[in-house]
């Protein structure tokens, strides 16, 4: 019988995993010896903090990231011949805005059972705390990096939000956070509500919803912190 694929959430920052992961998830980690991860060093650090300190050298790690080829991903299918496999992203839920989705798709094609586990999601936590529409929302991923293309994308996202009364969620590479926020304040309508949610679940967490006009009067610097942005017209 082939092993299962367990989708293992990881903390959104450097702290004790027991603060955000249920005991059954932490206990399951003790039974898995093979992991597919986005970055081995981060995964080793997470597993060590989660209770596997002293056992890391006995684990098997395989990398799956944005540089993995179709052939690399297909080769991972053989791992399940030897037992269960855990999928770990850099932070939060694996396979959501994450290359691990390709492994999940492979498992479905091969009839391998996929088991999602409970843990933190920066997208859902930001939406929960935003005060915006939690009944109709869309995750847009990353907006274009070039200013002209981003302006057009923001106008379209704003149009959709108004037409559908729908919260629009997006993220950015941390070093571009402040550039994106600047463009949001420059190109969005003054009445559009904007949520900025950085360092969610950390002691330094910052979550605030204001209109664009209000943000313009009291701008903030996010810096290179993991951040989620949400707008609603």
Element pattern in H and E: EHEHEHEHEHEHEHEEHE
* Major sheet summary line: 5 strands, parallel
CATH topology of the largest domain: Cobalt-precorrin-4 Transmethylase, domain 1
Low-confidence stretches: none
Residues in helices, as a percent range: 25-40%
Output the strand order for the largest sheet.
3-2-4-1-5
| Share in β-strands | 15-25%
Radius of gyration: 19 Å
Overall geometry: elongated
CATH class of the largest domain: Alpha Beta
Explain how this protein is built.
The structure is a single chain. By secondary structure, the protein is of the alpha/beta class. It has two domains: 5-116, Tetrapyrrole methylase, N-terminal domain (Cobalt-precorrin-4 Transmethylase, domain 1); 122-232, Tetrapyrrole methylase, C-terminal domain (Methyltransferase, Cobalt-precorrin-4 Transmethylase, Domain 2, 2-Layer Sandwich). 34% of the residues lie in helices and 21% in strands. It has helices at residues 23-29, 40-52, 70-75, 101-110, 122-130, 147-164, 177-187, 212-217; strands at residues 5-8, 34-37, 60-63, 85-88, 114-116, 137-142, 167-171, 193-198, 206-211, 227-232. The strands form two sheets. The chain has a five-stranded parallel beta sheet with strand order 3-2-4-1-5, covered by helices on one side. The protein has a five-stranded mixed beta sheet with strand order 6-7-10-8-9. The N and C termini lie far apart (51 Å). The mean pLDDT is 95.
């Amino acid at each position: 019988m082939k092993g299962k694929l367990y989708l293992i959430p990881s903390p959104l920052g450097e702290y004790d995993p027991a603060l955000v992961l249920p005991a059954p998830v932490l206990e399951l980690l003790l039974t898995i010896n093979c992991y597919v991860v986005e970055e081995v060093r981060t995964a080793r650090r997470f597993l060590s903090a989660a209770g596997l300190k002293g056992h890391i050298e006995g684990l098997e790690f395989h990398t799956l990231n944005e540089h993995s080829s179709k052939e690399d991903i297909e080769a991972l299918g053989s791992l399940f011949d030897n037992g269960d496999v855990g999928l770990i992203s850099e932070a939060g839920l694996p396979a959501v805005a994450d290359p691990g989705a390709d492994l999940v798709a492979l498992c479905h094609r091969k009839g391998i059972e996929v088991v999602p586990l409970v843990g933190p999601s920066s997208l859902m936590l930001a939406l929960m705390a935003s005060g915006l529409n939690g009944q109709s929302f869309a995750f847009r991923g990353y907006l274009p990096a070039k200013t002209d293309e981003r302006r057009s994308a923001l106008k379209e996202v704003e149009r959709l939000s108004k037409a559908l009364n729908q919260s629009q969620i997006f993220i950015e590479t941390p070093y571009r956070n402040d550039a994106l926020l600047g463009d949001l304040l420059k190109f969005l309508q003054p009445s559009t509500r904007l949520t900025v949610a950085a360092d969610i679940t950390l002691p330094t967490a910052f979550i605030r919803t204001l209109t664009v006009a209000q943000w313009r009067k009291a701008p903030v610097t996010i810096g290179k912190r993991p951040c989620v942005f949400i707008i609603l017209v």
